[in-house]
Automatic annotation (TrEMBL):
InterPro entries: Chap_CCT_gamma (IPR012719), Chaperone_TCP-1 (IPR017998), Cpn60/GroEL/TCP-1 (IPR002423), GroEL-like_apical_dom_sf (IPR027409), GROEL-like_equatorial_sf (IPR027413), TCP-1-like_intermed_sf (IPR027410). The lineage of its organism: Eukaryota, Metazoa, Ecdysozoa, Arthropoda, Crustacea. Its main location: cytoplasm. Pfam families: Cpn60_TCP1 (PF00118). Residues 774-798 are annotated as: Disordered. It comes from Artemia franciscana. SUPFAM superfamilies: GroEL apical domain-like (SSF52029), GroEL equatorial domain-like (SSF48592), GroEL-intermediate domain like (SSF54849). This is T-complex protein 1 subunit gamma. It is found in: Cytoplasm. GO terms for molecular function: ATP binding; ATP hydrolysis activity; ATP-dependent protein folding chaperone; unfolded protein binding. Keywords: ATP-binding, Chaperone, Cytoplasm, Nucleotide-binding.
Length: 798
């Protein structure tokens, strides 16, 4: 099924179609949702334990047959095993392990290059990287076997100052000296490179003509301005390390894992092949074809096959295809629905019936007689033949395991889970006291981070802060235990004047002196920081490349341009104080409350974890899920749960739910109204009667007989059973304390106060409007009218 999008749309539409009937029958949406969630939880359990089968990962033919079934209905089926083999080889190439788990990031490290002009059969996987680049100079080598590769992310050009500089020359020798200084600088960085004897240099930045000349003389091939993503793939393919400064190159930074560097011309363009790598963790899928449209279609099919290969390699279990899984689930849930109590049984059973839309659609698409085929399929499954499904071409009922038509279990599984436990722990984490009172500001200090791509069960509370950031330099540490953290809200860059300043230079040494002043200033602020021996620096502003260099040499990890709100949460989590000037840092400003700093890659993004904090007053709730829409729904539910938890922690008293509190209040106020004198007794009693609307609404929503249930509930409360309420699913009268259905006292108080005050406000407005109307009537032609008499007790009683 590829990524399962079509199946999801069809099945979701059928389930929603069934929901309309229950809404029309006045079944409350909450009951329907609870039934659907219960059905989904049971379906996941059945899939894992009864329907899915394990995959033999060592059997190449079995894996290829899985990918063939993914492409069986697509245009590329006619090319046989070409695309399944490409997909499997590409995904296997990029498998890595992190923390004992398999990680397959083929979107980042298995790049698809589309080159029109050949046959589809010429497509293949390159064990390395392919770049749409030519060498820098036509005399440089275009073929090198077993090359030593150096990867850079810096310029091989003359360094320019950070501040705007104008140079005025007064003597003819000054200009010559400036050119000499430029040549000396470029020769120095080229000598640093040549010293390591690389065969091939690839940089993300520029290379000047003079640098190209020196490299050519040394027999070194160079390529410039490659993408950051391509440089990262090259590093994983050939084992090189990307270097920021030529004077810091070490032997271990040189990549020697590549077997062949070659530049070829395809059509009108040059392509560089860095291939035949030993144990590469990145690859390139070269797609050929006669037209761009055909290649684009092949790419879409290949993406589906790669998704399927990834799912099987991560979760090596399969379910039979052809609607067999859905029919087996449908019958299992139908049987299980008999044990579901109350009206929730009907939405639960509707999910079971909705699952049959998948085999029904398959039968329709192949022109079979739908009713006859489905009836026969139900009969086969009732006899225990759970692998029987529909052949999508002939409409016959066949064994899917024999035809080797399977779906990955990972695609079938989509699970919902409640977030109450997360909310309770999250709110407890951010409790503080101010003026002797508890303060719970979870909106500011309990941030919710939504990261699609996992299961709901992976959601959790982090005792600290999670940032969508990576470290400043790839050589900086990505894991530090018990780090000393320094938080800044200033720049670690050369200080510029607030007004625009132009510097005029009259001597050749002045420009060198300006660069030296910039370096001295940055070195000074870095020395102020290094003196305090922090392990991690986080600032809201920028950090220059030179400052990054000094911090890296001191073994300090740095992150820049974090939000003000995130910096405040970090201060509360690790106990640090945010500092404005590096020369004013004190030991007490260093945060030492963090247990672990770690940077992880989730999907295509890097996330920094500052967690395991001791007594943190800020936290992060990490929400995972298969889709953004699902995570957004979970977030809304979580916000409700966190509000409830906050109310209970601030006012630790509960009231029985299910309308029990309102019925008890109604009877108590009715009794108390007998001691109220005069006509005020009747509005007082009306409030008591109005409270019964809550249990009345609960009885209506669950389809119970309202009058009978309310009469019985009044009788139970009259006997002193004040915790008796209505079960919102079955309509039965039960003890709310035994069912543990409670409402926070703070919420109940606020509900009653707001309702009564709203009614009072509306009565006052009505009184003002009525009074204005009476005055205007008296000012009219008939001014002899008398005002109506005051209401008597008898009239009020009537």
């Amino acid at each position: 099924v590829g990524d399962g999008t079509t199946s999801v749309i069809i099945l979701a539409g059928e389930i929603l179609l069934g929901s309309q009937r229950f809404i029309d029958d006045k079944i409350h949406p909450t009951v329907i949702i609870n039934a659907y969630r219960q059905a989904l939880e049971d379906a996941v359990e059945i899939l894992k334990e009864k329907i899915s089968i394990p995959v033999d990962m060592s059997n190449e033919n079995e894996l290829l047959s899985i990918l063939r079934s993914c492409l069986a209905t697509k245009m590329t089926k006619k090319y046989g095993d070409l695309l399944p083999q490409i997909a499997l080889e590409a995904v296997r190439t990029v498998i890595t392990e992190e923390g004992g788990k398999k990680v397959i990031d083929f979107k980042r490290y298995a790049r698809i290059e589309k080159v029109p002009g050949g046959a589809i059969e010429e497509s293949r996987v390159l064990r390395g990287v392919m770049l749409n680049k030519d060498v820098l100079h036509h005399k440089m080598k275009r073929r090198i076997e077993n090359p030593r590769i150096l990867l850079l992310d810096c310029n091989l050009e003359y360094k320019k100052g950070e501040s705007q500089t104008n140079i005025e020359i007064s003597q003819d020798m000054d200009f010559t000296r400036i050119l000499e200084l430029e040549e000396e600088y470029i020769k120095k960085i080229c000598d640093d490179i040549i010293r390591m004897k690389p065969d091939l240099i690839i940089t993300e930045k520029g290379i000047s003509d003079l640098a190209s000349h020196y490299l050519l003389k040394a027999g070194i091939t160079a390529m410039r301005r490659v993408k950051k993503s391509d440089n990262n793939r090259l590093a994983r393919a050939c084992g090189a390390t990307i270097v920021n400064r030529p004077d810091e190159i070490k032997e271990s930074d040189i990549g020697s894992g590549c077997g062949l560097f070659e530049v070829k011309k395809i059509g009108d363009e040059y392509w560089a092949y860095i291939t035949e790598c030993r144990d590469p963790k990145a690859c390139t899928v070269l797609l050929r074809g006669p037209t761009k449209d055909l290649i684009n279609e092949v790419e879409r099919n290949l993406q589906d096959a790669m998704n399927s290969a990834r799912n099987v390699l991560l979760e090596p279990r399969l379910c039979p295809g052809g609607g067999a899984t859905e029919m087996a689930l449908s019958q299992a849930l139908t049987e299980k629905s008999k044990s579901v109590a109350g009206v929730m049984q009907w939405p639960y059973r509707a999910v079971a019936q909705a699952l049959e839309i998948i085999p029904c659609t398959l039968a329709q698409n192949c022109g079979a007689q739908v009713i006859r085929v489905l009836t026969a399929l139900r009969a086969r499954h009732a006899n225990g033949e759970t692998s029987m499904g529909i052949n999508g071409e002939t409409g016959e009922i066949v064994n899917m395991n024999e035809l080797k038509i399977w779906d990955p279990l990972a695609v079938k599984l989509q699970v919902f889970k409640t977030a109450v436990e997360i909310a309770l722990e999250a709110v407890r984490t951010v409790i503080t006291e101010e003026g002797g009172k508890k303060v719970i500001d979870f909106k500011r200090y309990a941030r919710i981070e939504k990261v699609p791509g996992g299961a709901i069960e992976e959601s959790r509370v982090l005792r600290g802060v999670m940032l969508n950031k990576d470290v400043l330099h790839h050589k900086m540490k990505r894991r530090i235990e018990n780090p000393r953290i320094l938080l800044l809200d200033c720049n670690l860059e050369y200080k510029k004047g607030e007004s625009q300043t132009n510097i005029e230079i009259s001597q050749d040494m002045d420009f060198t002196r300006i660069l030296e002043l910039e370096e001295e200033y940055i070195k000074k602020i870095c020395d102020d920081i290094i003196r305090m021996k922090p392990d991690l620096i986080i600032t809201e502003k920028g950090i220059s490349d030179l400052a990054s260099h000094y911090l890296l040499k001191a073994g300090i990890t740095a992150m820049r341009r974090v939000k003000k709100s995130d910096n405040n949460r970090l201060a509360r989590a690790c106990g640090a104080t945010i500092v404005n000037r590096p020369d004013e840092i004190k030991e007490s400003d260093i945060g030492s409350g963090c247990g672990l700093f770690e940077v992880k890659k989730i999907g295509d993004e890097y996330w920094a974890y500052i967690t395991e904090c001791r007594d943190p007053k800020a936290c992060t709730v990490l929400l995972r899920g298969p889709t953004k829409d699902l995570i957004n729904e979970v977030e809304r539910n979580l916000q409700d749960a966190m509000n409830s938890a906050r109310n209970v922690l601030l006012e630790p008293r509960l009231c029985p739910g299910g309308g029990a509190t309102e019925m008890a209040l109604s009877q108590a106020l009715t009794e108390k109204s007998k001691s109220v004198a005069g006509v005020m007794q009747w509005p007082y009693r009306a409030v008591a009667q109005a409270l019964e609307i809550i249990p009345c609404t609960l009885a209506q929503n669950c389809g119970a007989q309202v009058i009978r249930v309310l009469t019985a509930l009044r009788a139970r409360h009259a006997n002193g059973e004040t915790s008796m309420g209505i079960n919102g699913e079955t309509g039965e009268i039960v003890n709310m304390n035994e069912l543990k259905i409670w409402d926070p006292l703070a919420v109940k108080l606020q509900v009653f106060k707001t309702a009564v005050e709203t009614a009072i406000l509306l009565l006052r407005i009505d009184d003002i409007v009525s009074g204005t109307k009476k005055i205007s009537d008296l000012d009219g032609p008939n001014q002899t009218q008398t005002a109506p008499a005051e209401p008597t007790e008898e009239s009020m009683r009537e």
